[in-house]
From TrEMBL, chain A:
GO molecular function, one term: acyl binding
Subcellular location: Cytoplasm
PTM text: 4'-phosphopantetheine is transferred from CoA to a specific serine of apo-ACP by AcpS. This modification is essential for activity because fatty acids are bound in thioester linkage to the sulfhydryl of the prosthetic group. 4'-phosphopantetheine is transferred from CoA to a specific serine of apo-ACP by acpS.
UniProt xrefs under InterPro entries: ACP, ACP-like_sf, PP-bd_ACP, Ppantetheine_attach_site
PTM sites of type O-(pantetheine 4'-phosphoryl)serine: S37
GO BP: any one term: lipid A biosynthetic process
Pathway annotation: Glycolipid biosynthesis; KDO(2)-lipid A biosynthesis; Lipid metabolism; fatty acid biosynthesis
Domain Carrier, residue spans: 2-77
Gene3D superfamilies: ACP-like
Keyword Ribosomal protein: no
Function in brief: Carrier of the growing fatty acid chain in fatty acid biosynthesis.
Presence of the UniProt keyword Membrane in the record: no
Record-given protein name: Acyl carrier protein
TrEMBL record, chain B:
Binding positions for NADP(+) per the UniProt entry: T38, N87, Y152, A153, A154, S155, K156, I185
Family: Belongs to the short-chain dehydrogenases/reductases (SDR) family.
GO biological process: fatty acid biosynthetic process
EC number from the UniProt entry: 1.1.1.100
UniProt cross-references to InterPro entries, sorted A to Z: 3oxo_ACP_reduc, KR_dom, NAD(P)-bd_dom_sf, Sc_DH/Rdtase_CS, SDR, SDR_fam
Function in brief: Catalyzes the NADPH-dependent reduction of beta-ketoacyl-ACP substrates to beta-hydroxyacyl-ACP products, the first reductive step in the elongation cycle of fatty acid biosynthesis.
Subunit text: Homotetramer.
Catalysed reactions, semicolon-separated: a (3R)-hydroxyacyl-[ACP] + NADP(+) = a 3-oxoacyl-[ACP] + NADPH + H(+)
Record-given protein name: 3-oxoacyl-[acyl-carrier-protein] reductase
Segments forming domain Ketoreductase: 7-188
Length: 78, 245
């Protein structure tokens, strides 16, 4: 498990108040983890802060699952 | 009764009239209040009347680059922001058939577009801290219309609709978004009315008097307080009964 994935999982668990074991690669924030659209915006804000990156709107929309977030952020902090 | 100790507020149009009274009332309830407006001297007068340290943040709200600097400046000056009062407003009256595009655009820009930008700018901080109070100063004219004020009425009705939409979006984050719609409030402008004009206006107001800026400010203090935590998307009409809606 990469360091990026750990940090992303921590944010997701804290923010959505879900069990860490449910935060798997294919887990959709909205469909599987109970997020609403505003939660999703807040998650992106939290990722931006944690990783000191800016996530443009079109990229933010493409981040639907835990795996999407990890792969985007892994590239972004590269 | 409504304690705002430790809260940080930004009031636009705080150089005079209703805005100055709102700033004073929020400060009197314990808030730190950043004052914005176009006239620095008048803002300094407001700060002196408040008698506490108030960040003074001059901005011309018809210029979006100045609008967009305002919230970051207020957050930097006070370490965050809990209360936003979109009070700044202007009129450019004209009969509809004669209204110029510039008159329309300028009023919409200052009264509505600036409020949109400021609302959007405060959300990130308020969402993170899970607390926020956004208050828009609308007008009875936005609710009822008024001849010669098509632009102003549109901007003030727009403010109410915008605030209701935003209230839906952020209610679950403990952020409330409300509007206050004052009726005829005593001001420098109403002092210029002659007796006949005054009579005509008063005949439409059941309370038979003009309102005071303090009476509007008191509503802002309530909506900003913890006591109003369950009030959102509301429009508080402060008009002496002139429009009971």
């Amino acid at each position: 498990m990469s360091d990026v994935a750990d940090r992303v999982r921590k944010i997701v668990v804290e923010h959505l108040n879900v069990d860490g074991e449910k935060v798997v690669e294919k887990a959709s924030f909205i469909d599987d983890l109970g997020a609403d659209s505003l939660d999703q915006v807040e998650l992106v804000m939290a990722f931006e802060e944690e990783f000191s990156v800016e996530i443009p709107d079109d990229a933010a929309e493409s981040i639907q699952t835990f795996g999407d977030a990890v792969s985007f952020l892994t590239k972004a902090v590269g | 009764m409504f304690d705002l100790t430790g809260k940080r507020a930004l009031v636009t149009g705080a150089s005079g009239g209703i805005g100055r009274e709102i700033a004073k009332a929020l400060a009197a309830a314990g808030a730190t209040v950043a004052l914005s407006g176009t006239r620095v001297g008048a803002l300094e007068d407001t700060a002196r009347e408040i008698g506490k340290d108030c960040p003074i943040l001059p901005a011309n709200l018809s210029k979006l680059d100045e609008v967009d600097k305002l919230v970051p400046a207020a957050e930097a000056a006070m370490g965050g922001l809990d209360i936003l009062v979109n009070n700044a407003g202007m009129t450019r009256d004209n009969l509809f058939m004669r209204m110029k595009d510039e008159e329309w655009d300028e009023v919409i820009a200052v009264n509505l577009t600036a409020a949109f930008h400021l609302n959007r700018a405060v959300l990130r901080g308020m969402m993170k801290q899970r607390f926020g109070r956004i208050i828009g100063i609308s007008s009875v004219v936005g609710v009822m219309g008024n001849p010669g004020q098509g632009n102003y009425a549109a901007s003030k009705a727009g403010l109410i609709g915008m605030n209701k939409a935003l209230a839906h979006e952020v209610a679950s984050r403990n952020i409330t978004v409300n509007s206050i719609a004052p009726g005829f409030i005593a001001s420098a402008m109403t002092e210029e009315l002659n007796d006949k004009q005054r009579e005509a206006i008063l005949s439409t107001i059941p309370a038979n008097r003009l309102g005071t800026a303090q009476e509007v400010a008191a509503c802002a203090v309530f909506l900003a307080s913890d006591a109003a935590g369950y009030v959102t998307g509301h429009t508080l009409n402060v008009n002496g009964g002139m429009a009971m809606i």
